[in-house]
């Protein structure tokens, strides 16, 4: 689990367009990434309509753990350094609603939270909790 390192490079728009036109493979790879992200965004938006705040919150934490997680002794530490406010924006819910869900998940021993920190301590347990909510 986790993410790979990379390098950030700022390219002026005219130079980027010139490079993209001269390098169709680069353009195709970039369009594939954009297409995947749009598809994932659509799926996530559809889940907002059909699922409640607890489901969306737990699902997002599992997704982040898989995508940005690093294994530690505590569990899977999400390396985003995001706040509860940002989590509530991602799941399209009030901070109070997300805090209530996090309290339930903490008491169940499924997550640990601190300022700008989320750790999924029991991935299998959180998946079970999520599947019970989906019924």
Question: What would you say this structure looks like, in words?
Answer:
The protein has 135 residues and is an alpha+beta fold. It has two domains: 10-50; 52-135, Winged helix-like DNA-binding domain superfamily/Winged helix DNA-binding domain (Arc Repressor Mutant, subunit A, Orthogonal Bundle), CATH 1.10.10.10. The chain is 63% helix and 10% strand. Strands 1-2-4-3 form a four-stranded antiparallel sheet. The longest helix has 27 residues, at 24-50. It is elongated, with a radius of gyration of 18 Å. The model has no long low-confidence stretch (mean pLDDT 88). Pfam families: HTH_Crp_2. Residues 51-124 form the HTH crp-type domain.
CATH topology of the largest domain: Arc Repressor Mutant, subunit A
Largest sheet: 4 strands, antiparallel
Number of helices: 6
- Poorly predicted parts: none
- Strand order, biggest sheet? 1-2-4-3
Q: What share of residues are in beta strands?
A: 5-15%
Pattern of helices and strands: HHHEEHHEEH
**Category from helices, strands and their pairing:** alpha+beta
CATH first level of the largest domain:
Mainly Alpha
Helix content: 55-70%
Kindly provide the radius of gyration, computed on alpha-carbon positions and rounded to a whole number of angstroms.
18 Å
Organism: Kineosporia mesophila
InterPro entries: HTH_CRP (IPR012318), RmlC-like_jellyroll (IPR014710), WH_DNA-bd_sf (IPR036390)
Protein name: HTH crp-type domain-containing protein
Domain HTH crp-type: 51-124
């Amino acid at each position: 689990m986790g993410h790979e390192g990379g390098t950030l490079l700022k390219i002026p728009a005219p130079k980027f367009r010139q490079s993209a036109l001269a390098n169709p493979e680069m353009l195709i790879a970039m369009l594939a990434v954009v297409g995947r992200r749009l598809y994932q965004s659509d799926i996530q938006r559809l889940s907002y309509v059909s699922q409640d705040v607890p489901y969306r919150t737990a699902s997002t934490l599992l997704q982040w753990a898989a995508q940005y997680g690093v294994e530690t002794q505590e569990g899977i530490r999400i390396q985003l350094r995001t706040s509860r406010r940002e989590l509530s924006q991602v799941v399209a819910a009030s901070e109070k609603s997300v805090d209530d869900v996090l309290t339930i998940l903490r008491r169940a021993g499924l997550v640990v939270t601190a300022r700008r920190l989320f750790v999924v301590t029991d991935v299998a347990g959180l998946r079970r909790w999520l599947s019970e909510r989906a019924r």
